[in-house]
Write a structure and sequence with these properties.
Elements lengths: L2 E5 L3 H13 L3 E5 L2 H11 L3 E5 L7 H9 L9 E4 L3
Parallel strand pairs: 1-2, 1-3, 3-4
Length: 84
């Protein structure tokens, strides 16, 4: 199964996503903010990223822009989500 990076600052949502994905057999890594996401992506190269649009500080669109500007990680699929 896939390694999924969850970038979500709302712990309740992150826990729900993680439980659902783990039940399907995926390996989960969770971070709370944009900088931690960039660091985790550089270190782990997850297979899929679940990215909150409304992060505190730098938002999900800024993270996505950063991802797409690096050729080595630009092809990682990103699922954008929001609880708004």
């Amino acid at each position: 199964m896939a390694t999924v990076l969850i970038v979500e600052d709302e712990m309740l949502l992150a826990d729900c996503y993680a439980r659902w994905l783990e039940a399907e057999g995926h390996k989960i890594q969770h971070v709370l903010d944009a900088q931690a996401a960039i660091d985790a992506i550089d270190e782990q190269h997850p297979q899929v990223i679940l990215l909150d649009l409304l992060l505190a500080g730098a938002n999900g669109i800024q993270v996505l822009h950063t991802l797409r500007s690096h050729t080595d990680i630009a092809r990682i699929p990103v699922i954008l989500c929001s609880n708004a």
